[in-house]
Amino acid sequence: MSEGFYNCSVGITAPTPLGNLDDFVEDATQTGHDFVVVPIADDHYKRVLFEEADSKKQLNEWRAGLPLTPKDLVLKKVDWAGVCTGIFSDWIDLESEDDLIRINSEIALKQEATWAAHLGLPSVLLPILPSNTISNFARVMCSLTNILSYAQILIRVIISDGSEATGWTQWNTLYNLTEQNPKLNVALELSAQLPMEEDQIERWYSMPIKAVIIPANVFISNQKGFPVLPKRHQSFVKALMKKFKPSIIVTASELGLHQAGGPSAYQEYIRYLNRSLPPPDDVERFSVGYQDYLQAPLQPLMDNLESATYETFEKDPIKYQQYEKAVYHALLDRVPEGSDVVTVIMVVGAGRGPLVNCSIRAAEKANRKVRLYAVEKNPNALVTLQNMKDEVWHDLVTIVFSDMRKWVAPEKCDILVSELLGSFGDNELSPECLDGAQKFLKPDGISIPSSYTTYIAPLSSSKLCHEVAAYKDLEHSETPYVVMFQQVSHIAEPKPIWTFHHPNKDDFEADSDPLHNMHNVRFQSTTFQAKGNITMHGIAGYFDSVLYKDVMISIHPETHSPGMFSWFPIFFPLQTPVFVPEGATITIDYWRLTDNKKVWYEWRVGQSLNVVDKTIELGTTPVHNIGGRSSWIGL
Amino acid sequence: MSEGFYNCSVGITAPTPLGNLDDFVEDATQTGHDFVVVPIADDHYKRVLFEEADSKKQLNEWRAGLPLTPKDLVLKKVDWAGVCTGIFSDWIDLESEDDLIRINSEIALKQEATWAAHLGLPSVLLPILPSNTISNFARVMCSLTNILSYAQILIRVIISDGSEATGWTQWNTLYNLTEQNPKLNVALELSAQLPMEEDQIERWYSMPIKAVIIPANVFISNQKGFPVLPKRHQSFVKALMKKFKPSIIVTASELGLHQAGGPSAYQEYIRYLNRSLPPPDDVERFSVGYQDYLQAPLQPLMDNLESATYETFEKDPIKYQQYEKAVYHALLDRVPEGSDVVTVIMVVGAGRGPLVNCSIRAAEKANRKVRLYAVEKNPNALVTLQNMKDEVWHDLVTIVFSDMRKWVAPEKCDILVSELLGSFGDNELSPECLDGAQKFLKPDGISIPSSYTTYIAPLSSSKLCHEVAAYKDLEHSETPYVVMFQQVSHIAEPKPIWTFHHPNKDDFEADSDPLHNMHNVRFQSTTFQAKGNITMHGIAGYFDSVLYKDVMISIHPETHSPGMFSWFPIFFPLQTPVFVPEGATITIDYWRLTDNKKVWYEWRVGQSLNVVDKTIELGTTPVHNIGGRSSWIGL
């Protein structure tokens, strides 16, 4: 992957007044710009508002369909169309209280859009969002998507300076009014002052940003007089480049606000920023193509994993290192140095053997004698295990072909090693499997892992919302997905909901199989405090696990084991996006439920608002995935 | 229709302690009760909570599936099952914070439910709703609907006395948590004090009430010592009987709170109330079978109405009376008494001629000379018109077969009479039709109607919500329906949104056809103040019309023309129910939009809350029916 991994195209807006269009486009190209941003119509076209309404006849003829005239237009021919983003007229007022202006604005906007579609412009830019009501604007945007079926529609939103979050609020309302129409995108315009609060910046990561507009006055001059961005703007723009690869549009460059660099200075600086992004790290490289992509979680208990899946996960540089460390410390703690005691280690769910190798390496390093069993129910993986035994392990390892819940072990072990964890901790049924396997763990034996904890956080992501909605059925809106998050924003920090400990000596006779699975039922109600208004699309899930004492693995964002790529987060969608008002308390209820054949999760989200002396309930989603109707994990 | 039109069945709850079940059922039947309400399980069954948890082994065996024992049961055999409503144990606590009690309660409830299903009980009654959290309860109710696929599930809710609206709030939350599961019904228990505010009573009309529980202590004694209900209870129970025909359950009758009447007194009083309901009036009789039933609005412009449709609407006793009055006053105003002037009346959209007859009667009464044209585009109706001319009207009436928008009239008229109105006023395209017809109205001519106004109100109705949801598609959730409202509750009083006036002399040349239809576009944003928390399922639409001066017709609930049955209200659904918190302001935006081929409505609902010094936005629905994608009226 080259330096150009996060390359963005850079464009420039036409000066006012424009002068000669051909010259401008030629200059822009020669100064290194990839595209230009040009008004579709001339100011002359404002005539169609008929604000005076002096001629009813002309008004009616125009409303009946009279086309644009050449005098009305800036973009007249298709010569440059391929590199032009068309700007709609800024006098168009879709929220005017004056019926005449509002209705004529709509007709005019559609005329400009039809013309833009006719020219084949690759994208169009709407005027800045109205600051008061917005429902007419939203309605017209929806009908615009039919006219502009090929062009990218960019809605211009100014990121506010934090005191009044108008740009965000208006866009978010617009987006909800249009049912999060996937044809509508944000052209985010930076202001000289960015919002003070980091979450007011980060919430934009949940939105479909396709362009970033940087006015020349946002740039400061460096010591040599060249335009550069202030530090905070820099890091925000870099984050946007990584997450969205947006087009960058420079406006007002013709004002000559910066002494040095000439007309290509802004463009060159943006490309410099682009190049200065660090190349993707191991995890990022591993994730290419998976960002915001919904994957069904593995069901390794019901299904047999494929060789390629083992292959991929065995490459994790961190996970096995941590397991080795855990076994190493367990051995040191359990057996005195120099002892001849042979420690029996059973690796349950051995797969193709990586945890067997970890355990052997740990024993060598600890200088402790061990004997191992590798228990695996997948017959295909067993072939590899058998090979390993024949060629490497020999008598050190006994291979067992069995479901660990059914196996009748010839002896009990000192250390039970397993890795049956999913992105949500227990979602690959580690609790149920280990309930069955702990029969052959000695009363004072050690389970690695010794516990795992599940975390959740309310999440906003229009991208994930679109991905789920694309399935157009109930089932997919109640199914958890494994996702490498990219265009998402946490509405609040993750919180733990439950923990499983192993071995489990409290809930049933340690030596026998459990009669039922009710002890693995969990329920937790958790509250989160939302800061600004935002739309919630689902719940992010994470886990961490204590392998042994202080040896941990984690995919919790705050404590993520660096470089470990075996688990992406999990995402539980909501059937319908939930608007979270400023200051609301979000309550998320989670259930882990079970019957004789399966395990499933149910979840629901409620909201309330504390107002002076009372709490006002703001409603609730339905309980999702009732009875596991849409998604479950087979026992 | 007999006195028994609103008959309800009456049942009685078993006393505590029950004694002999057979005797109780026999007594109850002999004292005139239709059914009995009996516990499914004995108190002995509470053992399964294992609150002491002294025997893990027994707990686990029970959890693994040990069935109920005879000692656990009250209802043991199927003898009486057909007349029994089973009550679940009241110690079942699905919201306990103690995992043991909560999980065991769920298992116990399901065991009782399975037993009730096995016995084939026609209905079951849940314990009183928990008063704090309710999401576990809701989740379990959903899974109960699978066990009890044939029995009616009654959730017991106590109507509160108004100070704390716990019963309502808890039920409403429960219902939203279960996605308004149509298998869940309310058994509404009356308290001695009903809520003070009328809207706290009326909002129950939007809920699926299948039973009303009346404890004996709610009855007062009349002069002779017989139990009777207080006035307010009486009228509430009567309203419930009319709307829901619920089962009535009397509880605690064994306490002997009333001196006279004996064990059958309550039952007899309820049947007396039942009989005292006035028989259905004309409109109600006309509406039988149509209550809360969704009908697609007529499209008389695109489709030709059938003979039966004309037949039905011609029977309206009020509408034609009002039209006759309107024409009568118009004639009196327009022509001096004794004048020989012949007034030309054109009836456009004459159908089978009722408005022609009205006009002739009006002229006779006014003693004015008239000449009439009957313009109709439906060839089938024309046959009847021609018959009428041949047999009754002769030269007085000229029959014209034409679309009124296309007709080239041989002369201009003095009075243009039409009835092209829909439940939403303009939704059968009266504005567009009269735009075309007014060409042949004299400059000083009179249009009857002279105007019509559309009204909307936010509406709650679980019934209508279910009806729409049953279609399981987007289209039906964005289509307006004509509905005779019954199980509904207005969230706020209706407000006007727009008016059309005729003739229209402002928007285009009076003598010519309009070049376009933009002058019939309408937009209105209206706010409503909600009182208590409630769930909004859609919008009710009404109209009134000034036929001439003070001669009106109206289907607005406050001013409804008595006895007029030609129009039911209209209902615009919401895609997803909207929870309306206490004190919220509801904003409804409505659009009437048009292109060359059709007219359609779009709508959206937003909410906000005024908190001390600021307004907090609570979110918005999407704009519904964008571009008329789901419903429209053909021009």
UniProtKB/TrEMBL annotation, chains A, B:
Residues 451-633 form the PRMT5 oligomerisation domain. SUPFAM superfamilies: S-adenosyl-L-methionine-dependent methyltransferases. S-adenosyl-L-methionine binds at Y310, K319, Y320, E376, D403, M404. Gene3D superfamilies: Divalent-metal-dependent TIM barrel enzymes (3.20.20.150), Hnrnp arginine n-methyltransferase1 (2.70.160.11), Vaccinia Virus protein VP39 (3.40.50.150). One of its GO terms (molecular function) is protein-arginine N-methyltransferase activity. It comes from the Eukaryota. GO terms for cellular component: cytosol; nucleus. Pfam families: PRMT5, PRMT5_C, PRMT5_TIM. Residues 284-448 form the PRMT5 arginine-N-methyltransferase domain. The active site is at E419 (proton donor/acceptor), E428 (proton donor/acceptor). The keyword RNA-binding does not apply. The record marks F313 as: Critical for specifying symmetric addition of methyl groups. One of its GO terms (biological process) is methylation. Keywords: Methyltransferase, S-adenosyl-L-methionine, Transferase. Residues 33-275 form the PRMT5 TIM barrel domain. This is Protein arginine N-methyltransferase. It comes from Umbelopsis ramanniana AG. The lineage of its organism: Eukaryota, Fungi, Fungi incertae sedis, Mucoromycota, Mucoromycotina.
